[in-house]
Design a protein that fits this description.
By secondary structure, the protein is mainly α. Helices cover 54% and strands 7% of the residues. The structure holds adenosine-5'-diphosphate and tryptophan. It holds the Pfam family tRNA-synt_1b.
Length: 314
Protein backbone atom coordinates (compact mmCIF):
# COMPACT_ATOMS: atom_id res chain seq x y z
CA UNK A 1 0.00 0.00 0.00
CA UNK A 2 1.34 3.39 -0.98
CA UNK A 3 1.25 6.19 1.54
CA UNK A 4 -1.30 8.86 0.81
CA UNK A 5 -0.15 12.28 -0.36
CA UNK A 6 -2.24 15.40 -0.68
CA UNK A 7 -1.29 18.83 -1.85
CA UNK A 8 -3.05 22.05 -2.79
CA UNK A 9 -2.51 23.60 -6.19
CA UNK A 10 -2.80 27.27 -6.92
CA UNK A 11 -2.57 29.09 -10.23
CA UNK A 12 0.29 31.48 -9.74
CA UNK A 13 0.44 32.97 -13.26
CA UNK A 14 3.59 33.69 -15.26
CA UNK A 15 5.43 30.52 -14.35
CA UNK A 16 9.12 30.51 -15.20
CA UNK A 17 11.86 27.92 -15.43
CA UNK A 18 12.91 28.78 -11.86
CA UNK A 19 9.50 27.58 -10.65
CA UNK A 20 9.85 24.52 -12.85
CA UNK A 21 13.26 23.35 -11.62
CA UNK A 22 12.70 24.58 -8.08
CA UNK A 23 9.23 23.23 -7.39
CA UNK A 24 7.26 21.70 -10.28
CA UNK A 25 9.78 19.14 -11.54
CA UNK A 26 10.63 17.78 -8.07
CA UNK A 27 6.89 17.34 -7.56
CA UNK A 28 6.31 15.57 -10.88
CA UNK A 29 9.26 13.29 -10.11
CA UNK A 30 7.73 12.31 -6.77
CA UNK A 31 3.94 12.11 -6.85
CA UNK A 32 3.72 8.60 -8.31
CA UNK A 33 5.50 7.12 -5.30
CA UNK A 34 2.32 7.90 -3.37
CA UNK A 35 -1.44 7.55 -3.58
CA UNK A 36 -1.63 11.18 -4.63
CA UNK A 37 -4.50 13.63 -4.24
CA UNK A 38 -3.93 16.94 -6.01
CA UNK A 39 -6.47 19.53 -5.09
CA UNK A 40 -7.08 22.92 -6.65
CA UNK A 41 -7.59 25.16 -3.62
CA UNK A 42 -10.34 27.23 -5.19
CA UNK A 43 -12.19 28.12 -2.00
CA UNK A 44 -8.90 29.17 -0.48
CA UNK A 45 -8.38 31.41 -3.51
CA UNK A 46 -11.69 33.10 -2.73
CA UNK A 47 -10.01 34.71 0.29
CA UNK A 48 -8.28 37.01 -2.20
CA UNK A 49 -10.10 36.75 -5.56
CA UNK A 50 -13.52 38.37 -5.87
CA UNK A 51 -14.08 37.94 -9.58
CA UNK A 52 -15.87 34.90 -10.97
CA UNK A 53 -14.13 34.94 -14.36
CA UNK A 54 -10.70 35.19 -12.78
CA UNK A 55 -11.37 32.41 -10.31
CA UNK A 56 -12.80 30.07 -12.99
CA UNK A 57 -9.85 30.84 -15.24
CA UNK A 58 -7.38 30.18 -12.44
CA UNK A 59 -8.91 26.79 -11.70
CA UNK A 60 -8.51 25.71 -15.33
CA UNK A 61 -5.02 27.19 -15.47
CA UNK A 62 -3.80 25.30 -12.40
CA UNK A 63 -4.96 21.98 -13.86
CA UNK A 64 -3.61 22.83 -17.32
CA UNK A 65 -0.15 23.53 -15.89
CA UNK A 66 0.02 20.29 -13.94
CA UNK A 67 -1.15 18.23 -16.91
CA UNK A 68 1.31 20.03 -19.20
CA UNK A 69 4.31 19.38 -16.96
CA UNK A 70 3.51 15.68 -16.90
CA UNK A 71 1.04 14.82 -14.15
CA UNK A 72 -0.99 11.83 -15.33
CA UNK A 73 -4.61 12.09 -14.17
CA UNK A 74 -4.84 8.30 -14.27
CA UNK A 75 -2.13 8.09 -11.64
CA UNK A 76 -3.37 10.77 -9.28
CA UNK A 77 -6.71 12.11 -8.11
CA UNK A 78 -6.95 15.65 -9.46
CA UNK A 79 -9.93 17.54 -8.09
CA UNK A 80 -11.09 20.90 -6.87
CA UNK A 81 -11.85 21.72 -3.28
CA UNK A 82 -15.28 23.23 -3.94
CA UNK A 83 -16.51 19.92 -5.41
CA UNK A 84 -16.16 18.28 -2.02
CA UNK A 85 -18.25 20.25 0.51
CA UNK A 86 -16.92 18.05 3.31
CA UNK A 87 -13.80 20.25 3.32
CA UNK A 88 -15.81 23.22 4.49
CA UNK A 89 -17.73 21.07 6.94
CA UNK A 90 -14.63 19.69 8.62
CA UNK A 91 -12.99 23.12 8.48
CA UNK A 92 -15.90 24.43 10.54
CA UNK A 93 -15.47 21.72 13.14
CA UNK A 94 -11.78 22.61 13.46
CA UNK A 95 -12.69 26.29 13.76
CA UNK A 96 -14.75 25.35 16.78
CA UNK A 97 -11.77 23.63 18.40
CA UNK A 98 -8.96 26.15 18.03
CA UNK A 99 -8.67 29.51 19.71
CA UNK A 100 -8.51 32.97 18.17
CA UNK A 101 -5.00 33.69 19.58
CA UNK A 102 -3.77 30.45 17.99
CA UNK A 103 -5.01 31.53 14.55
CA UNK A 104 -3.60 35.01 15.11
CA UNK A 105 -0.11 33.49 15.08
CA UNK A 106 -0.47 32.25 11.48
CA UNK A 107 2.07 33.85 9.10
CA UNK A 108 -0.28 34.45 6.17
CA UNK A 109 -2.68 36.34 8.43
CA UNK A 110 0.06 38.21 10.32
CA UNK A 111 1.75 39.31 7.08
CA UNK A 112 -1.47 40.73 5.73
CA UNK A 113 -2.22 42.61 8.93
CA UNK A 114 1.39 43.84 9.14
CA UNK A 115 1.03 45.29 5.64
CA UNK A 116 -2.02 47.18 6.84
CA UNK A 117 -4.32 45.15 4.59
CA UNK A 118 -7.73 44.05 5.66
CA UNK A 119 -7.88 40.37 6.43
CA UNK A 120 -11.25 38.75 5.87
CA UNK A 121 -12.53 36.03 8.19
CA UNK A 122 -11.83 33.46 5.47
CA UNK A 123 -8.15 34.37 5.47
CA UNK A 124 -8.15 34.23 9.25
CA UNK A 125 -9.51 30.68 9.32
CA UNK A 126 -7.57 29.60 6.19
CA UNK A 127 -5.33 27.21 8.18
CA UNK A 128 -8.35 25.24 9.44
CA UNK A 129 -9.72 24.73 5.93
CA UNK A 130 -6.27 23.59 4.92
CA UNK A 131 -6.15 21.23 7.91
CA UNK A 132 -9.46 19.80 6.71
CA UNK A 133 -8.09 19.38 3.16
CA UNK A 134 -5.34 17.20 4.53
CA UNK A 135 -7.00 15.32 7.41
CA UNK A 136 -10.14 14.42 5.50
CA UNK A 137 -8.01 12.09 3.38
CA UNK A 138 -5.77 10.80 6.18
CA UNK A 139 -2.91 12.15 4.11
CA UNK A 140 0.44 11.26 5.62
CA UNK A 141 2.60 13.27 3.28
CA UNK A 142 2.03 16.87 2.23
CA UNK A 143 4.46 18.35 -0.28
CA UNK A 144 4.64 22.09 0.20
CA UNK A 145 7.10 24.93 -0.11
CA UNK A 146 8.99 26.12 2.94
CA UNK A 147 6.48 28.96 3.40
CA UNK A 148 3.71 26.43 4.10
CA UNK A 149 5.51 24.53 6.86
CA UNK A 150 3.58 26.31 9.59
CA UNK A 151 0.27 25.38 8.01
CA UNK A 152 1.11 21.69 8.33
CA UNK A 153 1.87 22.24 12.01
CA UNK A 154 -1.56 23.82 12.30
CA UNK A 155 -3.10 20.78 10.66
CA UNK A 156 -1.38 18.49 13.15
CA UNK A 157 -2.58 20.69 15.97
CA UNK A 158 -6.19 20.70 14.69
CA UNK A 159 -6.22 16.92 14.35
CA UNK A 160 -4.69 16.54 17.81
CA UNK A 161 -7.27 18.86 19.34
CA UNK A 162 -10.07 16.84 17.77
CA UNK A 163 -8.59 13.57 18.98
CA UNK A 164 -8.25 14.85 22.53
CA UNK A 165 -11.65 16.53 22.65
CA UNK A 166 -13.52 13.48 21.36
CA UNK A 167 -11.19 10.87 22.86
CA UNK A 168 -10.40 9.21 19.60
CA UNK A 169 -7.56 8.54 17.21
CA UNK A 170 -9.57 9.62 14.21
CA UNK A 171 -6.91 11.85 12.70
CA UNK A 172 -3.34 10.91 12.02
CA UNK A 173 -0.57 13.50 12.06
CA UNK A 174 0.46 14.59 8.56
CA UNK A 175 4.06 15.32 7.69
CA UNK A 176 5.26 18.06 5.39
CA UNK A 177 7.49 17.04 2.50
CA UNK A 178 9.75 19.88 1.47
CA UNK A 179 11.01 18.79 -1.94
CA UNK A 180 14.51 19.68 -2.88
CA UNK A 181 14.82 21.35 -6.25
CA UNK A 182 18.01 22.34 -8.00
CA UNK A 183 18.54 25.30 -5.69
CA UNK A 184 18.15 28.85 -6.83
CA UNK A 185 17.81 29.31 -10.58
CA UNK A 186 19.32 32.63 -11.64
CA UNK A 187 17.45 35.02 -13.90
CA UNK A 188 18.76 36.78 -17.01
CA UNK A 189 20.47 39.40 -14.84
CA UNK A 190 22.14 36.86 -12.56
CA UNK A 191 19.81 37.58 -9.61
CA UNK A 192 17.33 34.94 -8.41
CA UNK A 193 14.80 34.37 -11.19
CA UNK A 194 11.49 35.77 -9.98
CA UNK A 195 8.32 37.08 -11.55
CA UNK A 196 8.66 40.16 -9.36
CA UNK A 197 12.12 41.00 -10.77
CA UNK A 198 11.17 40.82 -14.47
CA UNK A 199 14.21 38.61 -15.16
CA UNK A 200 12.50 35.37 -16.11
CA UNK A 201 12.47 32.83 -18.89
CA UNK A 202 8.77 31.89 -19.02
CA UNK A 203 8.00 28.18 -18.72
CA UNK A 204 5.68 27.89 -21.70
CA UNK A 205 7.39 30.55 -23.81
CA UNK A 206 7.50 30.44 -27.61
CA UNK A 207 10.90 29.94 -29.18
CA UNK A 208 11.04 33.64 -30.05
CA UNK A 209 10.34 34.61 -26.49
CA UNK A 210 12.98 32.17 -25.25
CA UNK A 211 15.49 33.65 -27.70
CA UNK A 212 14.62 37.17 -26.62
CA UNK A 213 15.12 36.31 -22.95
CA UNK A 214 18.36 34.42 -23.56
CA UNK A 215 19.83 37.17 -25.74
CA UNK A 216 19.18 39.58 -22.88
CA UNK A 217 21.22 37.53 -20.40
CA UNK A 218 23.76 39.89 -18.91
CA UNK A 219 27.32 38.91 -19.80
CA UNK A 220 30.31 40.56 -18.24
CA UNK A 221 33.47 41.11 -20.20
CA UNK A 222 35.82 39.55 -17.68
CA UNK A 223 36.95 36.03 -18.65
CA UNK A 224 35.83 33.90 -21.56
CA UNK A 225 32.93 32.10 -19.93
CA UNK A 226 29.74 34.13 -19.61
CA UNK A 227 28.79 32.91 -16.17
CA UNK A 228 25.10 33.84 -16.24
CA UNK A 229 24.64 31.94 -19.50
CA UNK A 230 26.57 28.99 -18.11
CA UNK A 231 24.53 28.92 -14.90
CA UNK A 232 21.26 28.56 -16.81
CA UNK A 233 22.82 26.17 -19.31
CA UNK A 234 23.84 23.83 -16.50
CA UNK A 235 20.14 23.07 -15.90
CA UNK A 236 20.05 21.38 -19.28
CA UNK A 237 23.45 19.78 -19.78
CA UNK A 238 26.04 18.07 -17.64
CA UNK A 239 29.38 19.56 -16.79
CA UNK A 240 31.41 17.53 -19.33
CA UNK A 241 29.20 18.59 -22.21
CA UNK A 242 29.29 22.18 -21.11
CA UNK A 243 33.05 22.28 -20.62
CA UNK A 244 33.50 21.06 -24.17
CA UNK A 245 30.93 23.45 -25.61
CA UNK A 246 32.26 26.48 -23.75
CA UNK A 247 35.84 25.58 -24.66
CA UNK A 248 34.97 25.30 -28.36
CA UNK A 249 33.12 28.61 -28.32
CA UNK A 250 35.40 30.55 -26.05
CA UNK A 251 34.49 34.22 -26.10
CA UNK A 252 31.73 33.65 -28.67
CA UNK A 253 28.82 34.65 -26.49
CA UNK A 254 26.38 34.71 -29.36
CA UNK A 255 27.00 31.08 -30.29
CA UNK A 256 26.76 30.02 -26.67
CA UNK A 257 23.48 31.83 -26.23
CA UNK A 258 22.13 30.30 -29.44
CA UNK A 259 23.03 26.88 -28.16
CA UNK A 260 21.24 27.62 -24.90
CA UNK A 261 18.14 28.73 -26.81
CA UNK A 262 18.10 25.36 -28.62
CA UNK A 263 18.45 23.44 -25.37
CA UNK A 264 15.69 25.35 -23.63
CA UNK A 265 13.44 25.06 -26.68
CA UNK A 266 13.98 21.28 -26.88
CA UNK A 267 12.94 20.98 -23.27
CA UNK A 268 10.01 23.41 -23.33
CA UNK A 269 8.50 22.51 -26.71
CA UNK A 270 6.69 19.31 -25.65
CA UNK A 271 5.32 20.94 -22.50
CA UNK A 272 4.28 24.04 -24.41
CA UNK A 273 2.51 21.93 -26.97
CA UNK A 274 0.63 20.04 -24.29
CA UNK A 275 -0.18 23.29 -22.52
CA UNK A 276 -1.64 24.78 -25.70
CA UNK A 277 -3.52 21.70 -26.78
CA UNK A 278 -5.29 20.66 -23.61
CA UNK A 279 -8.90 21.68 -24.10
CA UNK A 280 -11.11 23.08 -21.38
CA UNK A 281 -13.38 20.06 -21.89
CA UNK A 282 -10.52 17.70 -21.12
CA UNK A 283 -9.72 19.62 -17.94
CA UNK A 284 -13.35 19.58 -16.83
CA UNK A 285 -13.55 15.86 -17.39
CA UNK A 286 -10.38 15.31 -15.33
CA UNK A 287 -11.86 17.43 -12.53
CA UNK A 288 -15.21 15.64 -12.62
CA UNK A 289 -13.60 12.22 -12.39
CA UNK A 290 -11.32 13.41 -9.62
CA UNK A 291 -14.21 14.91 -7.69
CA UNK A 292 -15.99 11.58 -7.65
CA UNK A 293 -12.97 9.76 -6.31
CA UNK A 294 -12.26 12.43 -3.72
CA UNK A 295 -15.88 12.54 -2.56
CA UNK A 296 -15.93 8.81 -1.96
CA UNK A 297 -13.06 9.10 0.49
CA UNK A 298 -14.18 12.37 2.07
CA UNK A 299 -17.83 11.42 2.61
CA UNK A 300 -16.87 8.20 4.34
CA UNK A 301 -14.51 10.03 6.64
CA UNK A 302 -17.11 12.67 7.48
CA UNK A 303 -19.66 10.04 8.43
CA UNK A 304 -17.37 8.88 11.21
CA UNK A 305 -16.45 12.42 12.17
CA UNK A 306 -20.11 13.44 12.50
CA UNK A 307 -20.73 10.46 14.76
CA UNK A 308 -17.76 11.34 16.94
CA UNK A 309 -18.96 14.93 17.27
CA UNK A 310 -22.50 13.82 18.09
CA UNK A 311 -24.53 15.29 15.26
CA UNK A 312 -25.27 12.06 13.40
CA UNK A 313 -28.62 10.94 14.76
CA UNK A 314 -29.92 8.93 11.83
P1 LIG B 1 8.42 34.06 -7.84
O1 LIG B 1 9.71 34.35 -7.11
O2 LIG B 1 8.58 34.12 -9.30
O3 LIG B 1 7.27 34.90 -7.31
P2 LIG B 1 7.15 32.01 -6.30
O4 LIG B 1 7.54 32.69 -5.05
O5 LIG B 1 5.72 32.06 -6.74
O6 LIG B 1 8.07 32.56 -7.49
O7 LIG B 1 7.64 30.51 -6.21
C1 LIG B 1 6.88 29.38 -6.46
C2 LIG B 1 7.77 28.16 -6.25
O8 LIG B 1 8.85 28.17 -7.20
C3 LIG B 1 8.41 28.12 -4.87
O9 LIG B 1 8.33 26.79 -4.40
C4 LIG B 1 9.84 28.51 -5.10
O10 LIG B 1 10.70 27.81 -4.22
C5 LIG B 1 10.11 28.11 -6.53
N1 LIG B 1 11.02 29.09 -7.16
C6 LIG B 1 10.72 30.35 -7.50
N2 LIG B 1 11.76 30.99 -8.06
C7 LIG B 1 12.77 30.09 -8.08
C8 LIG B 1 14.14 30.15 -8.53
N3 LIG B 1 14.66 31.23 -9.08
N4 LIG B 1 14.88 29.04 -8.38
C9 LIG B 1 14.38 27.92 -7.83
N5 LIG B 1 13.12 27.80 -7.38
C10 LIG B 1 12.31 28.88 -7.50
N1 LIG C 1 -1.95 27.02 1.25
C1 LIG C 1 -1.31 26.34 0.17
C2 LIG C 1 -0.46 27.37 -0.62
O1 LIG C 1 -0.67 28.55 -0.50
C3 LIG C 1 -2.29 25.69 -0.77
C4 LIG C 1 -3.05 24.59 -0.08
C5 LIG C 1 -4.39 24.60 0.22
C6 LIG C 1 -2.54 23.35 0.35
N2 LIG C 1 -4.74 23.43 0.81
C7 LIG C 1 -3.65 22.65 0.90
C8 LIG C 1 -1.27 22.77 0.29
C9 LIG C 1 -3.46 21.38 1.44
C10 LIG C 1 -1.12 21.50 0.84
C11 LIG C 1 -2.21 20.81 1.41
O2 LIG C 1 0.40 26.97 -1.38
Amino acid sequence: MKKRLLTGLQASGQLHIGNYFGALKPFVDTYEEYDSFLMVADYHALTSIKDAKTLSGNILEAVRVYLAIGVDPERATLFKQSDVPEHMELGWIFNCLVSVPFLQQAHAYKDKVAKGLEANAGLFTYPMLMAADILLYDAEVVPVGEDQRQHIEYAREAGGKFNRAFETEEFRAPQELILKGVGTVPGVNGEKMSKSYGNTIPLFATKDAIAKAVMSIVTDSSGDTPKNVYAIHSLYRNEDELTKLYEENKGNYKALKESLVEDIEAHIAPMREKYQNISDEEILSVLKNGAEKARTVASKKMETVRKKVGVALY
